[in-house]
Design brief:
The protein has 278 residues and is an alpha/beta fold. The chain has helices spanning 12-20, 61-74, 95-103, 183-192, 219-236, 239-256, 261-275, and strands at 2-5, 30-33, 51-54, 81-84, 88-89, 111-118, 121-123, 126-127, 151-152, 155-156, 160-163, 198-208.
Length: 278
């Protein structure tokens, strides 16, 4: 199991307790600290002790996952890896055992996502990719929880994502060009292009508690998320989609410039940077 943490000390004890009381606890739990300078993690007193990896301050989810995946590969791990957010919960204690049962018939190259609940609601943790401006409009809905088996989708959320990284050639890794968001969608689309199934499971369900790592965007987070968004559009959508969405971003940033100069300049700078990339 791999968890990438950024300012996540407050939510880790609950996740550690949930993992420790699983009927079949994880063989290994790698915890990547992506805020080692501003808010270093402490594992003291956790119900399940993780293998703590020091990340780099400000690294995004994908870079943190890659760090853990490289460590696992170096140690000879060739099995399933569950990427699980620090602000998630496994309330029944049976989730990992249920998941292992459902993984057994699936091909080693599959990418697998799970159902995710936020409070009493359903979180769309996957969906389908369409051509056009609304490329992510079709998402999983609560009705899909009634499915008897895996649901084939085009993309899955990195909140709760399973894969066997070394079953892919080259080994599956996140693209570092996506520092914040869209890295999970990009991974699914890239691996699906090589023939990998992308599957969502209605059971077991994971709870999403929304930790401080997902707090309101600072200028730095806005910069990273805008870079990821624009790069994703440039790589995975038609040229006219990238052009129209870039124009929309430009106009909105200019309109907001008098009231929100800092964020507007960050967005404009990100647009200029992506347009200047080869």
């Amino acid at each position: 199991m791999v968890t990438v943490a950024h300012h996540s000390q407050a939510v880790l004890p609950r996740l550690a307790r949930d993992l420790a009381r699983q009927s079949r606890p994880p063989q290994r739990w790698l915890l990547v600290d992506n805020s080692p300078d501003s808010a270093p993690l402490s594992t003291a007193g956790l119900a399940l002790m993780p293998e703590l990896l020091r990340g780099r301050e400000g690294d995004g989810f994908g870079c943190g996952c890659n760090r853990a995946l490289e460590a696992l590969a170096h140690s000879g791990w060739r099995g399933w890896v569950w990427l699980l957010n620090p602000d998630t919960g496994l309330p029944t204690g049976e989730e990992l055992e249920q998941l292992l049962q459902r993984l057994r018939p699936l091909p080693a190259t599959a990418l697998v996502g799970t159902a995710v609940r936020e409070g009493n609601g359903f979180e769309a943790s996957g969906g389908w990719f369409d051509a056009g401006l609304r490329f992510r409009r079709r998402r999983l809905e609560a009705a899909h929880l009634a499915a008897e088996g895996p649901v084939a989708v085009d993309w899955l959320s990195g909140c709760s994502l399973l894969l066997q990284p070394e079953a892919h050639h080259p080994p599956a890794r996140f693209d570092p060009r996506f520092p914040l968001y869209y890295e999970d969608m990009d991974l699914c689309l890239r691996l699906a292009a090589t023939g990998a199934p992308v599957l969502w499971l209605p059971r077991p369900e994971v709870q999403h508690r929304r930790g401080s790592g997902s707090a309101a965007a600072s200028p730095r987070r806005l910069q990273l998320s805008t870079l990821s968004y624009l790069r994703f559009l440039r790589i995975h959508t038609a040229g006219w989609v990238f052009g129209l969405r870039s124009l929309r971003l430009l106009l909105l940033s200019l309109l907001r410039l008098p009231l929100h100069p800092r964020n507007s300049l960050v967005a404009l700078g990100s647009l200029v940077r992506v347009l200047g990339e080869p």
